[in-house]
Amino acid sequence: MFVMLCLWCGVLSQATTSCFAISAAVKTSAQANLFASLYFVFALLFGGLFFNAQTTNSNATFLVYVSFIHYGFEALCANELMGLALIFNPKGYDPTAITGETILSNYALNKDMRFPDLFILCGWIAGTLILTYLLLRYRRGVYRK
User: Fold this and answer.
1) Residues 6+ apart with CB under 8 A from 145
2) 26 is a domain residue
3) Per-residue DSSP letters for 64-81?
4) How far, rounded to the nearest angstrom, does the alpha carbon of residue 68 sit from its chain's CA centroid?
5) Rounded to an integer, what distance in angstroms lies between the CA atom of residue 109 and that of residue 99?
6) Domains of the chain: total
7) Is residue 145 part of a domain?
8) Assuming Cys at both sites, which of 40, 54, 59, 86 could form a disulfide with 108, CB separation 3.0 to 4.6 Å?
9) Which residues of 31-65 are buried (b: 16+ CB within 10 A; e: fewer)?
10) pLDDT score for 62
C-alpha cells in the first residue's frame, strides 16, 4: 500500500511540475494549455498501456522511456500483480490459470523495476523543478529591488 501511495504521489507530482515548467517557458496561458495538452497526450500514448515496446518493430520504442507515465504504470503493475494467481473462466471455455508474471511479460513490464521506477520518477520531479526555477530566474528575470 505504501509503494502504491508513493507511486501515485510521484506521478501526480511529476505531472504538476511538468505543467509548472511548461508555464514558465511560454508567454501566454493559451500557449501553456496547448503545450501541456500535447505533452500529456504524448505521455499517455507512450506510457505503456497503448504502446507495447516489445511487440513494435519501429524506431519509436525509445519513446516509452521518455514518458513519465511509463515508470508509474510499470511500477504500479509490478506492485499489484507480483505473486497474484488468477483463474480466467470465460463462458463456454475451460478455466485457465494465469499468473501476474504472465500478465507483466505480455505488457513488456519488468517485475524488478518497482523501486528503480520510483527513484526515476523522483529524479524527473527534481529535474523539472530545477528547470522551472531556471526558466523563472533567467527567462522572466528577477523582480527584486
Assistant:
1) none
2) yes
3) GGT-HHHHHHHHHHHHHH
4) 3
5) 14
6) 1
7) no
8) 54
9) ebeebbeebbeebebbbbeebebeeeeeeebebbe
10) 78
Contact 120, 98 (CB under 8 A): no
How confident is the model over 70-126, as pLDDT tens digits?
888 888 888 888 889 989 888 888 888 999 999 888 888 888 888 898 899 999 999
User: C-alpha grid cell for residue 90?
Assistant: 470465460
CA of 126: how far to CAs of 2, 32, 123, in Å?
21, 20, 5
Non-local CB neighbours of 30 within 8 Å, separated by 6+ positions: none
99 sits in which H/E element: strand 96-99
Domain containing 68 equals 2-139
3-state SS class at 86: strand
Residues whose CB is less than 8 angstroms from the CB of residue 43 and which lie 6 or more positions away in sequence, other chains included: 67, 68, 69
Read off the C-alpha cell for 132: 522551472
What does the CA dihedral 57, 62, 68, 69 come to, rounded to 10 degrees? 0
